[in-house]
Amino acid sequence: MTPAAAVLTPRADDFPRWYQDVVAKAQLAENGPVRGTMVIRPYGYAIWELLQAELDRRIKALGAHNAYFPLFIPESYLRREAEHVEGFSPELAVVTHGGGKELEEPVVVRPTSETIVNASFARWIQSHRDLPMLINQWANVVRWELRPRLFLRTTEFLWQEGHTAHATDAEAHELARRVLEEVYLDTMRSVMAIPVLTGRKTDGERFAGATTTWTCEGMMGDGKALQMATSHELGQNFARPFDITFSDETGASAFVWQTSWGASTRLVGGLIMAHGDDRGLRLPPRLAPVQVVVLVARADPAVLAEARRLASSLGAAGLRTQVDDRTDVSFGRRVVDWEIKGAPVRLEIGPRDLAEGQAVLVRRDAEGKEPVSLDAAVGTVTRMLDDIHASLLAAADRRRRHDTHEVDTIADAVEASAGGFAVLPALAVDGGGERDLNAAGVSVRCLQRRDGSLPERGDPVTELVAVVARAY
RNA sequence: CGGGGAGUAGCGCAGUGGUAGCGCACCUGCUUUGGGAGCAGGAGGUCGCGGGUUCAAGUCCCGUCUCCCCGACCA
Fold first, then answer.
1. Which of A30, A37, A223, A457 is deepest in the core (most CB within 10 A)?
2. What is this structure's pTM?
3. What is the pLDDT of residue A102?
4. A58: number of Cβ within 10 Å
5. C1' of B67 to CA of A123 (Å)
6. ipTM of the complex
7. What is the nearest nucleotide to A350, using C1' and CA?
């Protein structure tokens, strides 16, 4: 019996309970006093900051600039786009009083910022020389949730939202897809080690106000899907009501074509559920606040000195390193702590190791330990971190393939969705098929080409497949 | 909105009218420390709130508030 079994509910017993246990025991987050709100604890926030930095770098590489727009939005702004307000009104938080008086016009707490950003775009954009305009903001948003779950669905969450304006439909289309692949898909694979599917949402699943929604869908440890990021083509749906026009090269006035796209703290939940095991979190090295923990086995001055020297050279090599010298806490307790927290690599060092000029190297994603000489430790650990990323990704990919089943009918798709994804001809979910799926608790996650690539606009539905699953 | 549960120590819970408890966590000391250590001592409570019955209420009655689950609504 592994000690961790006494700490966490095994995943097979009760996956949601396991998830809650990990979030609590790894000290990632806890519930806030208002239902649906979340306190993100320092360790959880450190993961988010690392992820944020990766996304931010890629967003800026697209040519986008960060800005900040207000939390409060005039209610009238939301009403300007019919589908948009209809989609969001059930989950709006509305402020009716301020300064001790009832407001003449209520303000809503942003559920997303299309409207208020576009009110600025209308002023900022005059000429085709102002285009394309690529703006991103990091912010909190509020969507009143009835069934909240930490990180996955909270009433208030943190995210980035990109908003762009272009001279042509084709340009907006291309940008929405570049964001999906160059920002989101790439971050998920090469930072989060999660092999997501990409595709187009059905009309029923599309963002309120968008003409097309593109999505990244990940498979969690229980076979359910998680929508991990979306990128929308807005057409001219907002340009018209907000009057965002520009003079083109010929001097003619035209409405801009737009996109918007976002990824949130939900990704942290996805990270937990995609890689975690019965011993806790397993963090991909690029998102691990502590990549290497140097664990002092016994309270011994010589051991402690060596541990610190080792940590210092690991740190100098650019690895996020922490010495655990809490020798007033038992060794076993500290090992379990770091396993729950998902630190990718442990280096254990005690008097016996010191005598041999070595440390004991343990990787979180595999069984077994091996000695490593102190001289070689930095190089070995550095290589091992890359290898851990690769094997987490490979394992997740293997599981996704294994739990994805090709089927032909809605009934078979529902059955297959009990333990993973089902792929069936897109024609089958056209019209009534999607309703039947939804009635069974299964949803269309995305539409793809048969080879898994993104559909093009001209693709006939007969050439596409639908990926369906139960989802968070 | 309908139905069903639950509010007792930081967390999880027991307590069927008679001194408010247990596990974990916390504090102190000693012994420990290579996979959640042991022993001893200690601190911590308006039992959700208000009223009532009773010699006596965490427990029974009435009211009220909050939270959770299922359904409905919504998507």
1. A223
2. 0.96
3. 87
4. 18
5. 47
6. 0.88
7. B34
